[in-house]
Amino acid sequence: MNVHVTRRTGFYGMATPIKVLKNGEPCFMIANNTTKTIEVSEAEAELQVRFYFLGSDTFYLKNDGLDKEIEITMSPILLSNYLVFFFLMLMIPLVGMSIAAILIFVLLYFIFLFFMLKKAYVIKEIDDGA
Q: CB 3.0–4.6 Å: which of 6, 63, 67, 71 could bond 35 by disulfide?
């Protein structure tokens, strides 16, 4: 079975390729807005992507003999919350927060980043509607 992997991560990290792993082993690097093909001969395969500390949840592929289309995108939760935290960081000088409130806010920001590191990318199968 051939699996066509397309990366559409948008502006974030567009200049650097990310590593695609099949069953935990590096398979290839893929740049933004490109498609590469993996041959899957096993009954079930695991796909993941990595970029330094960022990663994705494991995506399980069942080999049914039909070609599949897989898309890699950025997590919408990560993007929206990142932008909200960034905007709030810009607002800190305007609202005159205390040092303790700023430290709590920064701590919450780093906790959010820590939990989102392994969920930064989303791997999903594209259904062609057939």
A: 6
Under DSSP, the state recorded for 99 is H
**At which residue do the structure tokens 């997590």 appear?**
75
Q: What is the pLDDT of residue 84?
A: 81
What are the extents of the domains in the chain?
2-126
The tokens of 6 are what? 């397309």
| Number of C-beta neighbours around residue 91 at 10 A | 10
User: 9 and 73 in contact (C-beta within 8 Å)?
Assistant: yes
**What is the number of other CB atoms lying within 10 angstroms of the CB of residue 23?**
13
CB 18 within 8 A of CB 121: yes
CA distance 104 to 48: 33
> Under CATH, which architecture does the 2-126 domain have?
Sandwich (2.60)
Tokens of 25: 């082993």
